[in-house]
Amino acid sequence: MENSFKILCPIDFSECSLNAIEYASRIGEKYQADLILFHVLNTHDYLKLSPLDVNAKHQAEFVKEKMQSLQKAVETESIPKGLKSCEIDFQDGNIVASTLAFADLKKADLIVIGTEGMNELRENIIGSRASQIVQESKIDVLVVPRKVFFKTPRKLIYASDYLEEDKLAIQKIVELAGFFDSEIDLVHISSTHKTIDKTLHQVMIDEITPFIRYDKVNFVLKSFRDDLALGLESYLTTSKGDMLIMLSRKKTFFDLIFSKNLSKKMAYFISKPLWVIKSF
Question: Which fold does the domain 6-145 belong to in CATH?
Answer without folding.
Answer: Rossmann fold (3.40.50)
